[in-house]
Amino acid sequence: MVGIGQYKTSYVFAPYEDLRFKHLIFNAELGRVREISDELASIINAELELSKGKIIEQSLLEFNKNHRLFTIITNDQSRLMTTLSNKYHEHVDEMNRQELTIFYEEINETIR
Q1: How many CB atoms within 10 Å of residue 108?
Q2: Closest by alpha carbon to 40, among 14, 66, 75?
Q3: What does DSSP say about strands 97-107 and 2-12: parallel, antiparallel, or unpaired?
Q4: Nearest-5° angle of CA 7, CA 12, CA 14?
Q5: pTM for the full predicted model
């Protein structure tokens, strides 16, 4: 007598590792870059405020505009890295397990 059997299991490729906080390293470095940029902006503003002239004033306006844009971009990058880190964690976690179904033939024979 022949029958079909099946065995279902879930295989885990590697132990669970929490990857959600990987963005903290990147965001810390980005924060340092922002702090240095803010320091530089303060120094430049303090120096140029004492000066007069069209070129100086135009340069100061352009510099402050660029500094604001830089701050916006780094803030966006920080949020993006946090989001991507969480998505990466979910993706790796999903790929870590594989559902398996094994089909096999059952042969029941009696020995005479």
Answers
A1: 7
A2: 66
A3: antiparallel
A4: 160
A5: 0.65
